[in-house]
Design brief:
The chain is mostly helical. It has 4 helices and no strands. Helix 2 runs antiparallel to helix 3.
Length: 107
């Protein structure tokens, strides 16, 4: 399976703007899922409100990207099955909004 196939499957599982509907196994996993969902929804709400990608906002966009990087950093804790999944979703979310996912904090 190629990287492109993996990304396609990931995008089909959770399309842009959708929430992560994977079942958390622990309260810690549930909390990180909720943070991810809020992070993703904020970017979508920003686009709806202002008609532009959050990546185009120098102040708020940078803060949003740092939050995504922070959530990625939390995946280093005991996240089990969610770690790779959410890391990929955050990676794609940053890229979709014109950020370099490998240059964000905690990447």
């Amino acid at each position: 399976m190629t990287h492109k196939d993996i990304k396609r499957q990931r995008n089909e599982a959770i399309p842009s703007g959708a929430s992560c509907h994977h079942e958390a196994r622990t309260p810690l996993e549930q909390t990180v899922l909720e943070m991810y969902d809020g992070w993703r929804r904020y970017a979508d709400a920003y686009r709806k409100r202002y008609g532009i990608n959050i990546g185009n906002d120098e102040a708020l966009g940078a803060a949003w990207a740092r939050i995504g990087g922070g959530i990625r950093g939390l995946l280093n804790s005991d996240m089990g099955h969610l770690a790779c999944l959410l890391d990929g979703y955050i990676h794609d979310g940053l890229r979709e909004r014109d950020f370099d996912p490998d240059d964000s904090p905690a990447a």
